[in-house]
Hints:
Layout: H1 2-45, E1 48-49, E2 59-60, H2 64-70, H3 73-85, H4 87-103, H5 110-122, H6 125-135, H7 142-147, H8 161-189, H9 193-201, H10 206-217, H11 219-234, H12 238-243, H13 256-265, H14 270-298
Amino acid sequence: MFLDKVYSKKKKTKKEGILGLLLSLGPVVGFLLFGLVPMILAIFMSFMHIEGFSFEGSSFNGLDNYKEVLNDPLFWKSIGNTLKMSISTFINIVLALIIAFLLTKNIRGKKVFRTIYFIPYVCSVAALTIMWKWIFNTNYGLINGLFTPEGQDPIDWWGRADTFIPCLIIMGVWSGTGYGIILYSAALTNVKGALYEAARVDGANGLQCFFNVTLPAISPTSFYLLLTGLIGALQEFARPQIISGTGGPDNVGVTVVFYLYRNAFQYYNMGVASATAWLLAILIVFLTIINFTVSKLWVSYD
């Protein structure tokens, strides 16, 4: 009887192990087919001259694709445009922290406010971009309708180089702050009350408690939002492309991924596009390493 129970238990454990293995194979196979294989293929393509979407007639050209990208002024401008748009990430973090901190107070309807703030984050990027495109529309937009004095020409928000990126930054702040609010709300509720009590015993006021207790305690959340926000910002593409498929006035809307997209699907130069993709990957890795290195100076995991 005892041996039968042991055998049955082993059989059940083995069955569960097989089922667990089968369930875990899905993401692994997906990564191999749609992640690792294209990644390896892109490496080879970046060293080849390829016209169109076929390897027919392609040839090895060494570092020519990388030289072409690095010698292209538009590529460097796309990096500058991308970094300017990433300003919204820093604004998101500051606003999210302030709002989340206020929502920790005894305010009626806190859950409703958090839900309202979070809704733009889960909505379709394309739909929200089209909405903001109309809000900033020159002739029919809400902004010009409310703030343009009578008799004055309306501002062409999307047609001017000096207003194109600020409008995108406003869009990014409006749609991305809610995510930070949710994470900061969770982080703030987990700060130990004993830390505040000890600080008050030492004579710290509310502002000193915030900077010396609250900020260090939630620094891992701040670091996570900063890191993921910068990586996401460097991959910006959908919003400027939907607003202006030509890259906006004076190409101010051309991000690195937009530059890659142009080479791949407008100029059909897959070699240059692949080289751009790997240069972007190197840039992201470089900034990530810098972030992790600097984080040792200000992130506290205690």
